[in-house]
Amino acid sequence: MDNYVILGETNEEPQNPFPAPFNSEDVKVMLVSKSSKFSKINGHVLEYFKENPEKNRFVVFKSVNEATEKVISCVEVLKQQFEEPLYQWTRMACIKRIVLWKCEQEGPRDIRVTVEVPVIFIVVSRDPFPGEHSCMSMQCSSDKESAFLPFTNAPRSSAGKSDNKNQERKKNRKTNDNNKWSKPSSEQRKKEHKERNQLLKEIESPNH
Amino acid sequence: MAIRMTTTPSKRFDEKTNEIKRRPPVKPSTDPNHIYITRKTNIESQVKSAETVLNNSFDEVFIHGLGASINKALVFALELERRFGGSVQSDIQTSTVQCTDDIVSLGELEQTETRHRYISAVHVHLYRAAS
């Protein structure tokens, strides 16, 4: 790409994937980037909820420039800070980033690179979501465990598997007890060594 | 000689006299259809193995990403969705996972402290859409 220069970059922004009323134009959308501060964003949202408690019932969080981790952390912190239960609806979309590379030399044609970058949208609402939109992407801050995770409290250890494997290996191992040509075991060798030493002592003793 | 274990309220500790040992986070399931994405995961090879899992043995796949690998987990889920076209749907949930670190004093080896960290996590449920 030595002879190529970036001519232009365009981003195809995804639309708000939520149904009405969460996608209307007057909805409060918090754009969270990598440099955003939790305290500022969450303070702003808490103030928004307190400002007009009857009207301001939900906020949409959206990630900017691949700051998906930050949005999720921000919402998790907000759920802990807010006393009342908060309802959360998460959706994923992608930005199409099209970069046009122009060749400085004559001959090779220009290159158009399309990169899909994930964007996360999270609706945080003080009210439960309407039943007709019910799906597994919805959760509540009072939920202790994730709905689709088969979490078990039983301790998981890899030792059990390896024990079974060892037992199987032991079962499969051939026992050469009756074969006189097989390599003697360590116990047999020790025994033979002992007997040999005893014989040598008897031979070397002055009584003989 | 008993090992003394305490929980540190503060996150700070002297790195010169202490060593930190991070315990691996608890996995919700060890089934083959649960995929854990880390910063070291190769997305291409993982997508291929997830495809074989979805095509042969399971109708659903769970993708988990913790902390810095959340974005990678979402990229992975998007790539899988793209490969399967409209035949696969996804649900996303988020959570906070508690991780434990052991802080071992280099001077007194029997003195160990534990520290808890909270990390954000994402869980994507990919499943075959009913035709």
Automatic annotation (TrEMBL), chain A:
Principal localisation: nucleus
> What keywords would UniProt list here?
Nucleus
* Skewed-composition ranges (Basic and acidic residues): 162-177, 186-208
A GO CC annotation recorded here is:
nucleus
- Which Gene Ontology terms describe the biological processes this protein takes part in? tRNA 5'-leader removal
| Recorded superkingdom | Eukaryota
What terms describe the molecular function in GO for this protein? RNA binding
Give the protein's recorded name: Alba domain-containing protein
Cross-referenced SUPFAM superfamilies? AlbA-like
Keyword Nucleus present in the record's keywords: the answer is yes
Species annotation: Caenorhabditis tropicalis
DNA/RNA-binding protein Alba-like domain location: 28-92
Protein's UniProt keywords contain Nucleus: yes
Q: Which family does it belong to?
A: Belongs to the histone-like Alba family.
TrEMBL record, chain B:
Q: Where is the composition biased (Basic and acidic residues)?
A: 11-22
Q: Which keywords does the record carry?
A: Cytoplasm, Nucleus, rRNA processing, tRNA processing
Question: Which GO MF terms does the UniProt record name?
Answer: nucleic acid binding
The GO annotation for biological process reads: rRNA processing; tRNA 5'-leader removal
Report the locations given in the UniProt record: Cytoplasmic granule; Nucleus, Nucleolus
Pfam families named among the record's database cross-references: Rpp20 (PF12328)
Q: From the UniProt entry, list the residue stretches annotated as the region Disordered.
A: 1-34
Naming one, the record's GO cellular component terms include:
ribonuclease MRP complex
The primary site where this protein sits is cytoplasm
The keyword Repeat is annotated on this UniProt entry:
no
Q: Where is the composition biased (Polar residues)?
A: 1-10
Q: How does it assemble?
A: Component of nuclear RNase P and RNase MRP complexes. RNase P consists of a catalytic RNA moiety and 10 different protein chains; POP1, POP4, POP5, POP7, RPP14, RPP21, RPP25, RPP30, RPP38 and RPP40. Within the RNase P complex, POP1, POP7 and RPP25 form the 'finger' subcomplex, POP5, RPP14, RPP40 and homodimeric RPP30 form the 'palm' subcomplex, and RPP21, POP4 and RPP38 form the 'wrist' subcomplex. All subunits of the RNase P complex interact with the catalytic RNA. Several subunits of RNase P are also part of the RNase MRP complex.
Q: Which family does it belong to?
A: Belongs to the histone-like Alba family.
* Chain's role: Component of ribonuclease P, a ribonucleoprotein complex that generates mature tRNA molecules by cleaving their 5'-ends. Also a component of the MRP ribonuclease complex, which cleaves pre-rRNA sequences.
Q: What is this protein called?
A: Ribonuclease P protein subunit p20
Q: Which species expresses this protein natively?
A: Caenorhabditis tropicalis
Q: What is the lineage of its organism?
A: Eukaryota, Metazoa, Ecdysozoa, Nematoda, Chromadorea
